[in-house]
Amino acid sequence: MAAKRSGARSKRGINERLQPVQEPRSEPPLSRERIVATAVELLDAQGVDGLTMRRLADRLGSGVMSLYWHVDNKEDVFDLALDSVLEYRGPQIVKSRDWRGEVVHMLEDWRASMLRHPWSASLLPRRALGPNILSRLELLSKTLSRAGVADADVNVAIWSLWNYVMGATITRASFDLSDDDRAAAQQRLTRLSERYPTIEHSRLLLDNDWGGTFRKGLGFLLDGLLQDEAER
Amino acid sequence: MAAKRSGARSKRGINERLQPVQEPRSEPPLSRERIVATAVELLDAQGVDGLTMRRLADRLGSGVMSLYWHVDNKEDVFDLALDSVLEYRGPQIVKSRDWRGEVVHMLEDWRASMLRHPWSASLLPRRALGPNILSRLELLSKTLSRAGVADADVNVAIWSLWNYVMGATITRASFDLSDDDRAAAQQRLTRLSERYPTIEHSRLLLDNDWGGTFRKGLGFLLDGLLQDEAER
DNA sequence: ACCTGAACACCGTTCAAGT
DNA sequence: ACCTGAACACCGTTCAAGT
Questions:
Q1: Which nt has its C1' nearest the CA of A76?
Q2: Is A142 within 8 Å of chain B by CB?
Q3: How far is CA B89 from the centre of its chain?
Q4: What is the distance in angstroms between the Cα of A1 and the nearest Cα belonging to chain B?
Q5: Considering only alpha carbons, which residue of chain A is nearest residue B151?
Q6: What is the pLDDT of residues A48-78, one digit of tens each?
Q7: Cα B69 from Cα B71, distance rounded (Å)
Q8: Which residues of A touch B156 (CB under 8 A)?
Q9: B31: nearest nucleotide, CA–C1' criterion
C-alpha cells in the first residue's frame, strides 16, 4: 500500500485565475485512486485484453514505470479495479423480515453492478477477494443466518447462490459482447438441426430475456433452499 | 478447416525395421488433431497464460508459422482445445425414467470433465460453442423435455443449471489453483474478524468439501425446478 | 499442399538513474 | 518520495518465400 489522498485539490480554488488556460491541461499527480479509476475506464472501453500498463500510463499522462510506484504489478491493478467496482451501496443492515426479498435484492444488485462493467464478472472468480466483495458476502451470510438457516447449511447456501450468480452473469456478459457470433451460432445450429433438434426447436441460443431468466432461476434455487429449511 | 487424417500411420508397420533408431525421434506431420492434443497438454501443464503459439510450435517440433496452415489463429486453438475436452462419453439416449438421476449424472460428469482440465471452465463461457458442448446441451434439453418440463420452462431450466454448473466449476477451479492464496485470505479475514464476523465464524473460505457442496446445491436447485413442475 | 524465417508492432517488468 | 528511459525477454501475426 502507498500513501493516499494528497491534499493537492484543496488549493485549486485559489490559483484558478492565475493559470486559467494551462492548468486544466496539466495532470493531477499520480495516485492509487487515479490509477484504479482510469483502469476501470480503460477496461470499460476496451475489455480485459485492452488493459495494458502502457496504455494505462498513456491515459494518465505518465511514464509506464511510474505506475509501479503506486501499484505492485498488473495483477494488482486487476484486483483493485475489480473490488472498486463492486462496492455495495445498499443498506448494510437488514431490518425487514422478508429475508427472501432481501436476498433477491442483494443478488440482483450484485449482478447489475457486474453487468455495468462486463469485464468484472469473468475476472471475479480468479482474483483475490477485496473488502467490498467480502462485505457483500458478510451481509448475505448475516441475512441467511438471521432468517434461521442452520449454521451447517449457510455455507452451502452462500456458495450455491454465489455459483448461480457468477455463472449467470459471466454467461450473460460474454454472450452480450458478441451479437454477431450469437447470430452466427444460431445459423450454424439451424444448419445442423438434425443433430440438435431439441435446442434448435427451443431456440435456446436466441432466448435473450436475460433478466427474466435470471430471476426465475434464482426463484427456483431459493424455493429449494427455503423448502429444505421449512422441512426440518 | 483443413484436411484431416493423413494416411501416414498406416504404413508404419512396414518400415519399422528399416529406421529403428531414428524414426521414433522424427515428428509425425502436423495436423489439426496433433495441434489440438498438444495444446491441451500445454494448457494442462501451464494454464491459460502458458499457451503460446511459440511454445506450442516448440512442443510440436515445427516452426511457429506452420501452425497457421492448420489453424486460423490463437482463438481458434482455444475453441478447439476446449471442445475436445468436453466430449461426452455417457449414453446418448436416456432410457431410465429417473430424470432427476440422469440430470445429476450428466451435470456431475460435465463438472468432472472440466475439473480434469482446470483451464476449461473459465474459458467456456466466452468461447464459441463447439459440437461436443452442443451435444451436451441437446441431451440435457431432451431429458428435461421428456421428463415433462413445459416447453416454456425448458430454457429457463437449462440456463439455470448451466449457470450453476459453470459458476461452481469456475469457482472451484480457481480456488484450487492457489492454496497459498486461500490460506492468506483466511488469515487476512481472521485479522479483520470484527468487520466480517459472520463469514469468519462460518469459515466460508476454508470450506473445501467442493463435491459435497456442489451436490447439495444442485439438489436445492432441482428441488425448486421439480416442485414447480409438480404444482401445475 | 505444406512449411519457414525475418520483420513488425506490440507486451510486462528489472534496473540503474534522475529529482 | 516520486518519477523516468533504456533494455530484456517475451508476445501474435503478416508477408514474401521456399519445397
A1: C12
A2: yes
A3: 14
A4: 15
A5: A202
A6: 999 999 999 999 999 999 999 999 999 999 9
A7: 6
A8: 213, 216-217, 220
A9: C2
B29 touches strand C (CB under 7 A): yes
Please, which residues have CB within 8 angstroms of residue A130's CB and are 6 or more apart in sequence? A79, A80, A82, A83, A86
A20 pLDDT higher than 50: no
**Chain B residues with CB inside 8 Å of A142's CB?**
198
How far separated are the first and last CA of chain A, in Å rounded? 48
Mutation target to probe the A interface, by most A beta carbons within 10 A, among B48, B111, B156 is B156
Per-residue pLDDT of B165-174, as tens digits, reads: 999 999 999 8
CB atoms within 10 A of CB B172: 23
Average pLDDT over residues B182-189: 68
Q: Is the CB of A65 under 7 A from strand D?
A: yes
Q: Are A144 and A158 in contact (CB under 8 A)?
A: yes
Average pLDDT, chain A: 83
Q: How far apart are CA A137 and CA B194, in angstroms?
A: 14
- Tell whether B141 lies on the interface with A, counting CB pairs under 8 A: yes
Which has the closest alpha carbon to A121: A134, A130, A108, A112?
A: A112
Please report, rounded to whole angstroms, the spatial distance between the CA atom of protein residue A74 and the C1' atom of nucleotide C18.
25
What pLDDT does A53 receive?
Answer: 98
What digits encode the pLDDT tens for the residues A171-197?
Answer: 999 876 555 666 666 777 677 777 899
Longest dimension (CA), chain A: 75
pTM: 0.85
* Identity of residue B108: E
Residue A12 CA to its chain's centroid (Å): 34
A108 in helix, strand or coil? helix
Q: Which nucleotides of D are covered by protein (CB under 7 A)?
A: 1-6, 10-16
- Written as nine digits, the cell of A24 is 486544466
Strand, helix or coil at A212? helix
Q: Is the CB of A59 under 7 A from strand C?
A: no
Is the minimum CB–CB distance between A135 and chain B shorter than 8 Å?
Answer: yes
> How far apart are alpha carbons B206 and A125 in whole angstroms?
16
Nucleic acid strand C: bases within 7 A of protein CB: 1-6, 10-16
Question: Nearest residue to nucleotide D14 when comparing alpha carbons to its C1'?
Answer: B65
Which nucleotide across the nucleic acid strands is nearest to B75, CA versus C1'? D12
What are the C-alpha distances in Å from A197 to residues A201, B15, B141?
6, 48, 10
Sequence spans of domains, chain A: 32-84, 99-177+212-225
- Topology (CATH) of B32-84: Arc Repressor Mutant, subunit A (1.10.10)
Residue B111's closest CA among B53, B176, B51, B19? Answer: B176
Do the Cβ atoms of A124 and A96 come closer than 8 Å? Answer: no
Any idea what the Cα angle at residue B82 is, between residues B116 and A182, rounded to 5°? 135
